[in-house]
Amino acid sequence: MNTDTMNGAATDFGGKVKQGMGAMLGDKSMEAEGKGEQLGGKTQKAFGDAKTSVDQTVRPLLDQARQFVKDRPFASAAQGGVVGLALLNTLRGK
Fold it and tell me: Which residues form the CsbD-like domain (predicted)?
């Protein structure tokens, strides 16, 4: 769990408390602020969850690529050259 997820959950909880207090006191402004904070907290929590998911998915792939480059430097250079030429030809429209 990263800081975005934790901060988002805390903001969401604080918004629920503020909304409840606003409803209990009859303060529509406080209630609306609470709803806004909940939305912001849920958004931040979703961002944190997505960041964690990407990190868990991409990190192993990067580790495998680094290991491949370390184990086979010449094959890696050849692959890089082929990809570079393909990219250049694509950008030039050939």
Answer: 4-54
